[in-house]
Amino acid sequence: HSKLRSSSNICLYSKDLTNGNSNKVFTENLIRNAINEDQLTVYYQPQIDLTFDKLHAVEALVRIKSPEHGLILPTGFIETAEESNLINELGDCILRNILRDARDWHREGINPRICINISAVQLAMNGFADYLISKIRDYELQLNMFEIEITENVLIQNMEATLNNIIKLTNHGIKIAIDDFGTGYSSLSYLDQLPLNTLKLDKSFMRKIVKADDDNTIIPAMINVSNGLQLDFIAEGVETIDQHEYLKTFGACIAQGYYYGRPMPGEQMLEYIKSFNPDRFGESH
Ligand code: C2E
Ligand code: MG
Ligand code: MG
Ligand code: MG
């Protein structure tokens, strides 16, 4: 009797386990395929300097173009890549895509700052900084046009290697941004201990702004903190004209979100930059 029950428990358990595994295996195969069959593509989203109404930078955002499943967003596969040792190969493939686009733009005389998301796993690897620097040089591009975006949780693992990489990158003119600020294990002490260039406030804070004259304490406070530490401040997730006008009332501020432009393929970003016109914000929304 008890044997029956336990065997049926095991059966249930192993069934769940199999389901969980097959999801992971499915995603791993998706990633491997994307790498091997050239199905990775990078989209770019503008960051706007609201003080001068000009383009500040573009952020590179990876997608998988799957023939069977369409365009797959990174939230569906970055974590799996990190867990299954595919992140370095994936990251390398993404980087080559970005550098190819950057070189194409450079040949047309367009040299925007390019922000690249880097996984904490990659940044914790010995030699990551040397790798990134030499890749950029291979494409004959300037190191100081690149910024890497890392999250606050980046220092949790292998702190020494991570710090060495950050310092080396900074010494070579590559800028560092803290992404999604305010969502992880934030510590304000990171902000002045690390050689950072930029603070990106997570989009959840922007979501609370509904009207241009809304009262909010966090956003202006974080702008002040950033100014005090001489960091660029970026508000993520700006979707509406009200949110845009809300931000316009503050001093130095950079904004990113669907209101200024959705992530778009490289050729489209080139056109966006060439015909940049602040009067047309809101049209892509
Ligand atoms: P992230 O770096 O914080 O990127 C911003 C995300 O917010 C992007 O999602 C972007 O499409 C989305 N977004 C931009 N404007 C708005 C807006 O106005 N409203 C809303 N609701 N969302 C907006 P995406 O492209 O799906 O990327 C998700 C995350 O995946 C990124 O978050 C980043 O953490 C990661 N990721 C993307 N590309 C890469 C990559 O090449 N390497 C690594 N390691 N991670 C990447
Ligand atoms: Mg980012
Ligand atoms: Mg973010
Ligand atoms: Mg994120």
Strand order of the largest sheet: 1-2-4-5-6-7-8-9
- Report the sheet-strand fraction: 15-25%
**Small molecules in complex:** ligand C2E, magnesium ion
Assembly classification: single chain
Largest beta-sheet details: 8 strands, mixed, barrel
Category by helix and strand content: alpha/beta
Number of strands: 10
The Rg value, from CA coordinates, equals: 21 Å
List the uncertain runs: 1-18
Average pLDDT metric = 90
Q: Care to describe what's here?
A:
- With 285 residues, the chain is α/β, with parallel strands linked by helices.
- 45% of the residues lie in helices and 20% in strands.
- The chain has helices spanning 2-36, 78-83, 87-107, 120-123, 128-138, 159-171, 188-193, 203-206, 218-228, 241-248, 266-274, and strands spanning 40-49, 54-66, 70-72, 114-117, 146-151, 175-181, 198-201, 232-235, 254-256, 264-265.
- The protein has an eight-stranded mixed barrel, surrounded by five helices.
- The radius of gyration is 21 Å and the shape is globular.
- The model is unreliable at 1-18 (pLDDT under 50).
- One magnesium ion is lined by residues 59, 117, 149, 179.
